[in-house]
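Example record

One chain of 129 residues, shown exactly as stored in the release files.
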Amino acid sequence: MDPERFAQVLRDLPELHARPRGGIFIGLVDDQPAGCVMYNEQSAGVAEFNRMFVSEAGRGYGVGRRLLNRMFDQMIEDGYQKVIFSSAIFLTHARAMYEAAGFTDMAHPDGFPNEWKPYVYFMERPLLG
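Predicted C-alpha cells for this chain:
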C-alpha cells in the first residue's frame, strides 16, 4: 500500500469502526496498551473484525483471547449473528487462538483477487449457539 493510501486508512479508522455498527477495543497489561482489535458491519447480521494486534510485550497474558471475547460480547449486543475475518498466511502465531475461539475456514469471497488467494485465508464463526 502506498504511503498516501495508508495515511488515509489510518485517518478513516475511527469512522469506519464507529458505534453503533462497529467498535474499537484496547487490551491492557499492567495498565499499559498491549493490543487492539476493531470491527465493523460487513453485511446484514455479519460483522468483520480486523486490525487485531498484540504487542510482543503483551503476548502470553491472554490479551488476544480477552479482546476477542469482549468483541464477541459487543457484537452479540449489536445484533450480529456471525463474525468473519481474513489474515495473511504468514501470520501463523494467532491462527491457533482463532481456531480455539471457534473459527473455521471459509471460502474466499466472490471477487477476491486470484493472485492474492495463496497469501490470505478467511475464517468465520457463529456468534450465538
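Notes: The chain is about 25% helix and 35% strand.
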